Amino acid sequence: MQLNTQIYQTQIDIENRILRACKHTSRKRSDVKLIAVSKRQEADRIQASLEAGFRCFGENQVQEALTRWLPLTSIYPDLELHLIGALQSNKAADAVRLFDVIHTIDRDKIAKAVSVEMKKQNKQLSCFIQVNTGLESQKSGIVPEKAVEFAKICAHDYGLIVEGFMCIPPIEEDASPHFAFLNKLASQAGLASLSMGMSADFEDAIRLGATHIRIGSAFFGKRAY
Ligand SMILES: *Cc1c(COP(=O)(O)O)cnc(C)c1O
């Protein structure tokens, strides 16, 4: 009961912060989707958020997500699951089976694997293309200068439904310039959606046009490991 109350209260707090950020920039609340990032969270916290009525979750590992969410999909048929971590092509079948949206398409091989699986499973997912705005060598994502062209290839050659761009700014930098840059790239590509903003910076992301914010620790508390 105590945990449920706590999670419920946190959800209300975050909701109010989102509302305020939307108001500030004359954006509609309905134009910003909140994805609760449940990776490495204790099951009781996730259960509490489900009981509070929350249904939209993000995971960064296919295997962890399968273990956690597959048993829950029959209990909560209105779940909406987002893959926000790097995808390997040998996990494409599982990813397409479980998720509704993939935020991390970043190279031909993955675009192709996802496309093949969607046809096989007769299931159309929405996709985001991850852009490595900080040009970090250890981070996934396509380099910015190729992003617009790659979005076209994904749509035309692979038949993906490309909603928009996603980024994870370098941890030690101010995120706002990255958000503004991603917004500009999306306009150039004619894409409507932007997956950007996490616990530390989601209000800035909303101010700079985020349509999908991915909030983990501020929503559930500190991760288990
Ligand atoms: C873990 C993760 C998040 C959430 O991070 P918090 O700082 O806990 O909000 C968002 N996006 C991605 C891609 C992540 O891996």
Structure description:
With 225 residues, the chain is of the alpha/beta class. The chain has 9 helices and 8 strands. The chain has a single domain, classed as Alanine racemase (TIM Barrel), CATH 3.20.20.10. Helix content is 45%, strand content 16%. An 8-stranded parallel β-sheet has the order 7-6-5-4-3-2-1-8. Helix 7 links the parallel strand 6 and strand 7. The longest helix is centred in the N-terminal third of the chain and has 23 residues. The radius of gyration is 17 Å and the shape is globular. It starts with a helix and ends in a 5-residue tail after the last helix. Bound molecules: pyridoxal-5'-phosphate.
Total strands: the figure is 8
Strand content: 15-25%
Count of helical stretches? 9
Mean of all residue-level pLDDT scores:
96
Per CATH, which architecture? Alpha-Beta Barrel
Rg, nearest Å? 17 Å
- Roughly how much helix do the residues carry, as a percent range? 40-55%
Strand order in the sheet with the most strands: 7-6-5-4-3-2-1-8
CATH superfamily grouping: Alanine racemase
* CATH class division: Alpha Beta
End-to-end separation: 24 Å
Which stretches of 5+ consecutive residues score pLDDT under 50? none
The distinct bound ligands, ions and cofactors come out as: pyridoxal-5'-phosphate
Order of helices and strands: HEHEHEHEHEHEHEHEH
Instruction: Characterize the overall form.
Output: globular
- The secondary structure category is alpha/beta
Number of domains: 1
